[in-house]
Structures are given as C-alpha cells and as structure tokens.
Amino acid sequence: MLLPATVYILALVGLPFLIAIVYSVTDVTVGDTSLDFVGLDNFRRIIKTPQFQRALSNTLFFAIVSQVLIVVLATALAELLSRDFRGKRVVWFLIILPWATPIALGTVAWLWLLDSQFSPIDWVLRSVNLLGPGTLLGPEDHMVFLGREGLAMASVIMVHVWRLLPLAAVIVLAGLTTIPRDILDQAEVDGAGFWRILFRIKIPLIFPIISIAILFGLILTFGDMAVVFVLTRGGPIYYTQVLPTWAYFVGIEGGSLAEGAAIALFLFPLLLAVAILVLRSSRRMEIS
Amino acid sequence: MAVVETRDIKKYFGEVRAVDGVDLSTHDGEFLVLLGPSGCGKTTLLRIIAGLEQPTAGEVLLGGEVVNGLPPRARKIAMVFQSYALYPHMSVFDNIAFPLKAHGVSKEARKTKVGWATSILGIEKLLERKPRELSGGEKQRVALARALVREPSVFLLDEPLSNLDAQLRASARDELQQLQRRTGITTIYVTHDQVEAMGMGDRIAVMYQGKIRQLGTPQEVYDEPADTFVATFLGSPPMNLIEREDRLVGFRPERFLPTEAIELHADLVSFSFAVTRVEYLGADRLVYGAVGDVSGDTKAVSRLPSTVTVPIQPGDSYDFAVQTADLKFFDKVTGLRTGPRPF
Amino acid sequence: MRTVSFKRPAKRAGLYGVAAFFSFFAAAPILWMIITAFKGDWDLYRSRGSPFLFNKYPTVGNEPSPVVDSPTLENLRLLFFETNFTTFLWNSLAVGVLVVVITLIISIPAAYSLARLTGRWGERSGITIFLVYLIPPTLLFIPLFRIVVYLGLNDTLWSMVVVYPTLTIPFCTWLLSGFFKSIPKDLEEAAMVDGYSRLMAFLKVVMPLSLPGVIAVVVFTFSLTLHEFIYALTFVSSSAHRTVSVGVPTELIRGDVFFWQSLVAAAAIVAIPVAIVYSFLLDRLVAGFTMGAVKG
After folding, report:
1. Averaged pLDDT, B269-277
2. Among the CATH numbers 3.30.70.1350, 3.30.565.10, 3.40.640.10, 1.10.3720.10, which is that of C76-295?
3. Residue A17 lies in a domain
4. Could you tell me the maximum CA-CA distance found in chain B, to the nearest angstrom?
C-alpha cells in the first residue's frame, strides 16, 4: 500500500531531483539545452561570487532570526490559546487570518503597508510623533522600510513571521494540550510560578514538537521564496537576496539553468544537516 | 502544623453541584479521610483546599487564616496526585528538589533536604533515575518524598494508592500511615476504598452528592451510621435494610446469625431466613436469601465466621436472629437515623 | 502574605492584553485591506488623512467631484468584471479540492501500512518521509516543468493537480501514520472478529477515530495549494487557468502600475471565508496535530 505514494514521490520528486543534480554539473542553459559535463565548475564559480556569499549569509540570518522569533511568539500565543477566556473564538479567527491569505496576495498588501511614500505605518508613526523632524525616528517623513539595508531585512522577516505564526502556534498548542493536567497542577502546588512552569515544565516537555515546528519553519524559509520575491526581489541591491530567490534569478531570469540548479542544490546538504540535527535532538528528549 | 477548615464550601460547574455546602474541620496533626463513591465531590473539595479550584461560595481556612484567592504556592500545602504527576523530563533528585527550587532554597540546603526526605522513604538509590525507569511503588515514594521535602503544614493526598497492585497497596498503606504519624503533618486523604479509609483514618468524612453525610471515627461511621447511605456504603457486604411500617431497620450481616449460634439469648429479634445461595470464602461464609416481611420478602445477607459451623443449604429456611442492640433505625423518607424503637 | 484577590483581574487584563497584541499583529493588515478595498484613488494617493478612514474629496459648493470618491465599489467592479477573478477563485477551489482528494487517496493507505509496520522500519521510514521536504521547490521546478511539458500538462489546471500532491503527501502520510499508530490494533481486530473484512474494519473503526487527523490533513493540504506560488507561476501561462495566488497579481500588476485597492480586496475576499472555516475546524485541527504529530 506504500507503492502509490512511493511511485508518486519518486516520479515527481526523485526524478526532478536527479535531473537537477545532473544540471548542476553541466553547462545547460535555457538557450542551449545540451548537457555537457563540467564537474563541479558551477559550484566553484558561484561560491566565488559576492552575490552568492551575500545570499548565503542573508539566508542564514533570515532563517535563524525568523525561526527564533516564530518559536518565541508561537509559544506565547499557544500559551494564550491554551487558556479559556471570553471571546476566544474571535481571537482565533483574527489570528488565523494571515494563514488564510494566499501568501503572494498577503505580501502584495504588505508591499503597500511598507511603501516608501504611502506607508500607513509611517502615517501612524507620524501621528504619534515618533517619525518626522525632531522625533525619535528621525528627521525624514518616511521610514522607507524596503529601501534600507537593515530595515528591508527586518521587513522581510516580519512578513515571514506574520504568515507562519498561525501554523507554528497551532503546532505548539497541540504540544501543550498533551501535557497531563496533573503535572501542571502539581507544579503549581509545588510552588512554581508562571515563568518557572513555562520554562522548567512546559517547554522541556513540548520540546520535541517545538523542534518539529522549527524544522517545518526552516523548510518553508529555505524552500519558499514568495515573500522575498514579491516584497523586495532581493533588493535593495543584494541586501535581502536569499539563496532560493538568487537561484531563481540566475536560473530562470538569467537563463543559466546549471548555475541556478547548483545554487539551489547548495542548500540541500545544509538543510539535511540541520534536519538530522533537529530530529536527533528531539528524539533524545523523552516523554514518558 | 495546622488545622484545615472549610466553611460552607460550594462549587458549581454549571448545573452540577460538585460540592454543595461542606463544613469540615480537621484536628491538628490528624489523618482525615474523605471517603465517597466516584463523582461525590471529594476530589473537587481537595482541589479547592489546595487552591487549584476557586469555590463558588464559602471559605477555606488554613491555620485559622482565610486563604481564598491565594494561589496554591502560598498555602504551605503539599499534594500527591493519583497519577503521581512526576515530571517525566527530570531525574528523581530534580523532581524532589523542584518545590525547594521554586521556593528559593539554596543549593546546599536542597541537597540536605532531598537527602533527608529520600532516606525517610528509603529511595536514596533512585536519585539519578528518570520517572519512566521506576516501578509503581517507587513512583509513589518519589511523589511522597517530593511532598514531604517542603515540610508542609498540610498534606493532601488524592487516591495515592489506587495505581498500585493489591499486594503493594497493603504495605504502602502501612508505610503511609507510619510516615504521617512520625511527621505529625495534618493529612487529608481522598479515597473511594473503604478498607483504606477504615484502616488509615483517624476520622472519616463520608461524602455523597457534594455533601458530607457523616464525620466520625472509623468505628462511629461503621457502627453508628448517620443515614442509610453511610450504612450501605460502608461494610462488605453492606448493611441489610428491611422495611417496618414507617421506618427502615438495618443490621450488619455479621450480626445476623443462626439463632442456635448466638450464645446470649436475651433481647433477640428472630427472622425466618429463606436461603438461596451460599458463598464459601474460607474465613467466612456469605449466606444470601430473603427474610419474611409484612410487605413481602426482602433480600438479606449474613456473614458467618468459620467458627459458626451450623450446616446451611440453599433452598431451605432457617431461624436467624439479631440482637436488639444491633438494630439501627432510619426514617423511611429522609433516610436519616432515628432513635431506637420497639421492633 | 500577598493576597491575590486583586491579582486575578490584573491577570485577566494581562491575558487580554496579550490577546489584543497578537490579534492586532495578525489582523490589522487584513482590516486595512478591507478599508482600502473601498477607497478611491484620490483617497489612497493624495489625501493626507488617515489611511484607516475614508477621506472625501474636498469639494467647493456643488462642484461634482472630479475623481472617484471614497468609499466606492469601483475597485470590486474592476476585480470581478475586468479580471478573471471569479475564474481564479474557481480554479483555486478546483485545484484545492482535487489535490485534497488525491492526497487522501494516496496518503491514507501509505500511512496505514507505515503505522502497522513494526520495529525500526516503521520508525525510520517515518523520518525518511520528512526528508523529502528538504529538497527545495526552487530546485525542483525547472526539471518539473520539463516533466509537465513531457506529460502535455503545461498550461492546464492538471499540471498543478498532479504536482501539488508531492508537497502534501509526505507530511500528510507522516501525520496520519502517527494517528493510526495511536489507535489500538485491538479495536480493528475486534471488528474483524465481529465479522468485518480488514478493509471494512479499517473504514468503520479506524477512519472515524482518525477524523481529526483527516481534517488536519485537509486543512494543511488546502492551505498549501492556496499559497503555492512558484509552480503555479511556472506551469501556467494563460490567464484562464491561473489560480488566485498567481492570477490576481499578474492581472492587477501591469508593469509598474499596481491596482492596489483591487489587489488587497482580492486578498481579503479569499482570506476571510477561509479563516472562518479554519477557525471552526481549529479544535479538531489541534487535536489532529496532537494525536498525529505528538503522540504518534
């Protein structure tokens, strides 16, 4: 009964994966589809380019920072949603909205929210006197979120956190609901306060599920380029370029299929190592 | 040490009255058992005393102070749950040290105290183990050590023996009682097992439908039940109840004997007992049957110790009797105990 | 000793504070989208007023306003009648439903046989499945495009219907196998002793108990197809076969000209009903993740 699934995955993941590997060691381009073996030349060449190096460091920074934020916020959100309070359904509905928005459309909306001229966020900052001449955020009238090195990366991370938070919270919440109530009551009787229960009891107990959430987040961060693609297209300059978008620009827009495949493939061992690390450490955590 | 007192505690879950006006007061250093069938509200009452639930109405006093609204950690109580609730990711040492850590006890003092608690319970060798590597009995000791280590003024125990097998349970009962005697910590112990209650409690509070039906020593609740619920809940088999005019008359199966086996023949009330079944249990015989009654036959049980050798066969009728002093009278409508009446 | 009688309301306030923070972070962009969907161009670009309110074009006397004034239905008219928006919606729905069906048909038997595999094999394959995800779509879509062309599916809805399950099957198989593992074998065996065939025992006993898992799988699969962008962009070139996530941006971003109000209107129109459905399924969704991912 495993057969249909195996065949499906082999045909539509395994085969293209092999083709991609073959591409990466040839000189195939959109114009010239003949496959001439060139060994690891593509890898050697791309590694040397500053764009690639920048994209690699951006990818790591983006992945790590957004994952840390997502895990912290998702834990807080799950902690909230594990309680009963009036209006919880409404809160549920509001929080799930980003996950229900097709990501390309959601990101287009953020594009305007972060616009260099019309950003409603700028307007809010101005109206509470945080932005503009003689204020905390500086003399300009606009933040130009997507046009400055640090802010552009921060914006990309924020939108990414915005769209992944609901899913991560649901996963962490699922973990929280498995903790037996007796254990939590016991901790309370033993004199532990909110933070001690959170850090010494809840988080260690749900660590395996948190690591699954992290793994998922990493996969989506490394694999899905929609946010960067729509929001900044890697810009300004290369400040937010990440490997998936760089692979797309080189491979498709630049027409160099082989180099694009090499860039995209570069992620694979990295991702594999991280995944094995995460899965290992989560298996070492034991819940009886 | 402290006295626990509840004043008219009520807890409603929607329409359900889990606890319905409980006034209870322990003595200092007492072993008090809350006994009742499942769903009678005993665990809810315990959780209210612990501070894990807020009562709908009423007051909880610990050592004479009202503690309503205080979180559990401010109450100087320790609790052992039915599941033991050991933290699965911590070693035995860390489990026992957890309450101390939470109360800011220094590392040195923690070591000393954990050593003290584990030596009392004889689990010094388990300190490095994780809970999943422990047997049921060991888990229970670790949970007790964790409760003990803070030197609480009150122990709250929620059916701590129900996960042990029968053999272990007997010895655990003994140890638990000894521990309580030695430490002199006021203890409230919740159970549905009357053997545990009778064997361990200084006093027993019998609960039913959210109310305490009777509070008394094991002897009092067994020999002088306050109503028909207490009378039939305690004792195995339970008290026989037969209808006589406007009242119910009860007598214990072990007091219901063949007339010829009773030495003292004064003040006897005789019944014709139509035997339907005899169970031979070794030390006892249980004789099931029906006694003749104005309103027809009523089922009754007799428990004959093996010293009574009168032969009894199913299908026959025998002369059985109860001493008048052993008859208890209850109101037919309310079920409450009434004074002795001529039979 | 501290009394907590006044601490409880404070705790309550803290809880609502946190709830408000998260709700605001998640939903404020959507709220802004809804307002903006009804704004006229002047209000969006020229007015210095609040972006969260409708600002009227300042008129003198009885002069008719020279612009489309806020609030207006013009943006919605543009979206519904001058783009293929309704077609995109139908396409998204059709692709979503078909992918859900294919995913279930393939994942359920695979998950079941994984769950009943004993020993190390079962455990290992569970993890191996996960590794399929590590191959990024950015790497796959170029060769996949060739395969799609080879199969003659390019520029059809079927290209997405066929390819998307590769994104969903591994996760769904893993989640469902966790679920099936948590259901005791005894139950099935009891049903088989009672005279059901293995298949019927599975359908009558295991499946109903796995409903939360199936719901989690359905929600996960559907939202993935709704979000998917790269494959949809690559495989389909004609407007009539596009899904919402690609069709709307390609039609409403014409070169440098963004039809902002219609774009965000489209986002809100999709997000709100989908979020309503999800929020009703959430308890089961959480239960599905709990049983499938945590306990299994």
Report:
1. 89
2. 1.10.3720.10
3. no
4. 75
